[in-house]
TrEMBL record:
PROSITE patterns recorded: ALDEHYDE_DEHYDR_GLU
Active site: E257
PANTHER family: ALDEHYDE DEHYDROGENASE, ALDEHYDE DEHYDROGENASE-RELATED
Aldehyde dehydrogenase domain segment(s): 20-482
Protein name from the UniProt record: Aldehyde dehydrogenase (NAD+)
Pfam families xref list: Aldedh
MF-aspect GO terms: oxidoreductase activity, acting on the aldehyde or oxo group of donors, NAD or NADP as acceptor
Organism: Solimonas aquatica
Family: Belongs to the aldehyde dehydrogenase family.
CDD domains: ALDH_CddD-AldA-like
Keywords for the protein's UniProt record, in alphabetical order: Oxidoreductase
InterPro entries, per database record: Ald_DH/histidinol_DH (IPR016161), Ald_DH_C (IPR016163), Ald_DH_CS_GLU (IPR029510), Ald_DH_N (IPR016162), Aldehyde_DH_dom (IPR015590)
Amino acid sequence: MMLPEAKLYIDGKLRRAAGDKTYDNIGPWTGEVVGKAADASAEDIDEAIAAARRAFDTTDWSHQHQQRFELVKKFCGIMQANREKLVQIARLEAGSAIGAAFRAQIDGALNGAKDLLECHAKVSWEKDLGVKNEYGFDTKRIVTQEAVGVVGAITPWNVPLYVNVGKVVAALLAGCTVVLKPAPDTPLMGAIMGEFAHEAGLPPGVFNVITSGHAAMAGEMLTRDPRVDLISFTGSTAVGKLIMQNGAPSLKRVFLELGGKSAYLVLDDCPNFPMVVASSMVVFHAGQGCAYPTRLLVPRSRYQEAVKVLEMAYAGFASKWGKFEEPSCIMGPLISKRQLDRVMGYIEIGKQEGARLLAGGKVATDKGAGFFMEPTCFVDVDNKMRIAQEEIFGPVLVVIPYEDDEDAIRIANDSIYGLGGAVWGSTPRALAVAKRIKAGALSVNGGMSITGDLPFGGYKQSGMGREWGVEGIEEFLETKAIGIRVS
Ligand code: NAD
């Protein structure tokens, strides 16, 4: 099965890259080419930035809130109507299983777009702060919010539609113009948004998409270019740091959504302990999720019970993953050979560090030539180990015993990251623990803490700023105070 070619979308035109240059889009399920993508040249990228700058500076896009809202709504409606096409892209290009498409891969993104449209009405574009007498005369004061300008949106491959929507829809609703640069591994999920924008009739230059086979070139150009006012980046912490550095000379706004190593903390009074422990398996989309709670913290008093539950749960899951046509399947391959090698490297590290492999740990060769590895669980893990401290971004759970609630909170917070987390236990106690975890999104007893109308983002090295929700639109706004002398 082949996907259509991913084209550039620059200044209102869908087109191929300069010199018709393309690169291969490799499918994770087979390791084979599933499509071609435009490989943007430096000139193409420059043109996209110039178009976005022109559209921001010379049109009324940023001022016409209602007209813009209607166009973005139409754009989101077209996206919604193309759900099936998006599911196919997520499966073939991002390696999504069908069951994962029903959640964060596709439906989470489409629902999130609807949530953002609703949040637009809650943005306060102008606030009256009344008259104040200062230095002997009266001043009427207003505070306005206005679009920052040109946004460079740089996105990863794991849940590409979700991240693209979180940035693009929010930035457009704020009145910014956008250059989207999807990850090299998932070009079509970005390019298709250009097609939808074209169909919706967004004014030329307001939204542009550049795909590139080179990991860093397009992103670095966006980050260094003084015509770009804000970089909204989702990806690894290492590249996030580079973005800050490269954006510093032009002091552009940088908004960063980075890695995580979140805790799944089960308290000793947790109802349905076996079911809750079994649900901690890191299998959804092969564990390639930034806010995925990949460290299971269980009370030492119930540790052996938890290990037994996990042993059975992993054995039961062995026949349920890696099925391309199965609607209930939630775990497929890893995105690439590079990622598979990286995750397998951590399996070796875990063994050397003295953790015990309870399940998995091997490349799965019985699923074909794609990038499959077994759902994996390490037990007897100490939080100091690299497998407990570093983001693995694969189907790997590490299990760590703790002594009491204070110890559990200490371990949960003993991380350079602070993105997500989950706490299970009797509600008031679990909520009190959740409030003490230094992370941006906490689920208590399975509640959804990540939806399109809630702010999402990280503490510490998991990033800065918030995406989604009203806060996610306001991230793309500047605040201006105006004083009008009235006496
Ligand atoms: P990555 O950091 O390698 O790449 C992310 C994007 O940055 C890609 O588009 C890539 O081409 C681009 N890029 C690479 N080098 C660049 C540079 N020097 N300047 C500018 N752009 C550059 O990450 P990845 O491997 O694509 O994605 C996995 C990572 O993303 C994981 O660490 C994961 O935790 C993180 N992630 C975070 C969130 C979140 O919301 N916090 C969501 C999804 C993924």
